[in-house]
Amino acid sequence: MKFKKLLPLVTLTSIALSSSALAANWSSTALHVNNGDQKNPFTKQESDTTVYSLQHASGYDYGDNFFFIDYSKDDTTDGYQDSDFYGEWYSTLSLSAISGEKVGAGALLDVGLTGGINVAGDAKMMKYLPGVKLSWDVPGFNFFQTLVTAYIDDSEGVAKGGAPIETNSWMFDVAFEYPFTLGSQKFSFKGHAEYIAEREDEFGNDVEAWILAQPILVWDMGHALEMKENTLLLGMELQYWHNKLGTEVTESVPQIHVEWTF
Known about the structure:
By secondary structure, this protein is mainly β. It is built from 3 helices and 15 strands. Strands 1, 2, 3, 4, 5, 6, 7, 8, 9, 10, 13, 14 and 15 form a 13-stranded antiparallel β-sheet that branches. Strand 9 and strand 10 form a beta hairpin. The longest helix has 22 residues, at 2-23. The chain is globular, with a radius of gyration of 19 Å. 24% of the residues are buried.
């Protein structure tokens, strides 16, 4: 059952939300909705796809937490994104906060020790991502972070009805947010880009290295409607995925993006 693999992520999510409610210095929880014509990397067929994503970020005295859970639904019954869940959870400990002294110099604000989990429902996939997060001081940006982690497989494999088990690899990720204004209107350019190195599956087949970039340009519609700022955002997300899911398929998909922060 695909929910079984999501149980660890749901548990960690509950812990993160509980911790945030009790001891967070700051927190943000939002619902994202994206819609566009995404491609099945195995059949190369495009389908109208909607992805609902619950995202949460919070910070406390010694670090921060971030997670998201996606529910994907497309209009083609082909065993791919028919009604599927995918989630990621990361927790980071700040070395500056733990040591009581700044760990970093110049543009490097802080160094953090990160532990992450990636979980997919239908694929019965689980990855562990221990690594290091660097926080940078880049003028104009709300945040600019780079993450380097291992990409350790703990999936169930084909024998148990999932995707093939893979050898271990590594990941590099960049995440950012840049706010700006045009006249009286507020906008933000944000998102992330990741590189995951090549590996092999349990049958000895190559799994190609991939690049996944998801930049988002949003307009603060809530501010324009005299609501609280950064509550209701409307914009466009471009999903560029070279070697999608380790195949030799590349897609570039513009998606309508709506974001509501609770």
